[in-house]
C-alpha cells in the first residue's frame, strides 16, 4: 500500500528538495511525498504568489486547509527556524539550552496547537535550509565554482561548529549569509537542491541529527 506524506514548504527550494532528494529515496518503501508551497499572499482576483511566511496567522490560514483534511496522509513541514515569526506557538516560551532543545520545543508547541496526533508531525530546519549544504563544503564549493580561498573560507566555518545545524541564527551569521559572503552568484533554488542531491540523503542524515529525526 502506498503511503502519502504531504510536506508543507515555504518556497520553491524546499519544493525541489523534496522532489529531487527525498522522494527518490522513499520510492522503494512505497512512500510518496508531495510538497505543497504556502502562498505568501493572495490577490482579490484569486491569484496567489508562492513562498514565504510573514506570520503565524498567515501560516495557520493556509496550512489548515491541508492539516484539517489530511485524507489519510501524514503531514509534515519544512520551514526555516531562522527568523520564524515570533507569533508562532512556542517561540515566546523557548527554554534556555541548545538550538536542538529550543527548536524541539517550538515543534512540539506547533504540534499541540493543531492537535492532530498521528497525522501531523511538524519539522523546522535548524537554522535554515542552507545548513544542509555545509554537510559537504567540497560539494558546495564545486557547485558554486569557488576559488581555493572561497572553498577554504566555507571549510573553516564548518570546522568551527560541531554540526552544520549549529551554524547559528544571529543576523548576518546564518548559513545562507555565510555562503553569500563568498558566492555573490548563489541562488538558493538553483544551487541548494543540487548540492544536497550530490551529497546524498545518507550523509545529510548523518551530519544533521535533527533533520535525521
Class based on secondary structure composition and strand pairing: alpha/beta
List low-confidence stretches. 42-49
Please indicate the count of domains.
2
Order of helices and strands: EHEEEHEHEEHHHHHH
Q: What oligomeric assembly is this protein in?
A: single chain
Rounded mean pLDDT score: 93
Query: Major β-sheet, in short?
Result: 5 strands, parallel
Helix fraction by DSSP (H/I, runs of at least 4)? 40-55%
Number of helices: 9
Radius of gyration: 17 Å
C-alpha end-to-end distance: 24 Å
Percentage of β-strand residues = 15-25%
The number of E-state strands comes to 7
Shape: globular
Please give a structural write-up.
With 213 residues, the chain is an alpha/beta fold. 43% of the residues lie in helices and 15% in strands. Strands 1, 2, 5, 6 and 7 form a 5-stranded parallel sheet that branches. A two-stranded antiparallel sheet has the order 3-4.
SSE topology sketch:
Elements lengths: L2 E7 L2 H15 L4 E7 L1 E4 L5 E3 L5 H12 L6 E7 L18 H16 L5 E2 L2 E2 L11 H7 L4 H12 L15 H6 L7 H12 L1 H7 L1 H4 L1
Parallel strand pairs: 1-2, 1-5, 5-6, 5-7
Antiparallel strand pairs: 3-4
Helix pairs in contact: 1-7, 4-5
Task: Please give a quick description of this structure.
It contains 9 helices and 7 strands. By secondary structure, it is an alpha/beta fold.
Tags for this entry?
two-stranded antiparallel sheet; 5-stranded parallel beta sheet; single chain; alpha/beta; 213 residues; 15% strand
Amino acid at each position: 500500500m502506498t503511503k502519502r506524506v504531504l510536506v508543507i514548504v515555504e518556497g520553491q527550494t524546499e519544493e525541489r528538495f523534496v522532489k529531487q532528494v527525498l522522494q527518490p529515496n522513499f520510492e522503494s518503501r512505497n512512500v510518496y511525498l508531495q510538497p505543497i508551497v504556502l502562498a505568501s499572499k493572495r490577490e482579490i482576483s484569486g491569484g496567489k504568489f508562492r513562498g514565504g511566511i510573514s506570520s503565524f496567522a498567515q501560516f495557520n490560514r493556509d496550512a489548515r486547509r491541508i492539516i484539517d483534511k489530511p485524507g489519510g496522509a501524514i503531514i509534515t513541514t519544512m520551514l526555516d527556524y531562522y527568523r520564524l515569526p515570533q507569533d508562532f506557538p512556542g517561540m515566546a516560551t523557548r527554554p534556555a539550552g541548545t538550538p536542538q532543545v529550543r527548536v524541539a520545543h517550538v515543534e512540539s508547541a506547533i504540534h499541540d496547537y493543531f492537535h492532530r496526533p498521528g497525522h501531523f508531525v511538524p519539522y523546522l530546519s535548524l537554522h535554515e535550509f542552507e545548513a544542509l549544504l555545509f554537510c559537504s563544503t567540497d560539494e558546495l564549493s564545486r557547485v558554486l565554482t569557488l576559488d581555493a580561498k572561497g572553498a577554504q573560507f566555507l571549510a573553516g566555518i564548518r570546522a568551527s561548529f560541531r554540526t552544520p545545524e549549529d551554524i547559528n541564527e544571529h543576523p548576518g551569521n546564518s548559513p545562507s549569509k555565510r555562503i553569500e559572503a563568498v558566492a555573490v552568484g548563489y541562488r538558493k533554488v538553483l544551487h541548494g537542491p543540487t548540492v544536497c542531491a550530490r551529497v546524498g540523503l545518507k550523509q545529510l542524515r548523518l551530519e544533521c541529527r535533527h533533520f535525521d529525526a
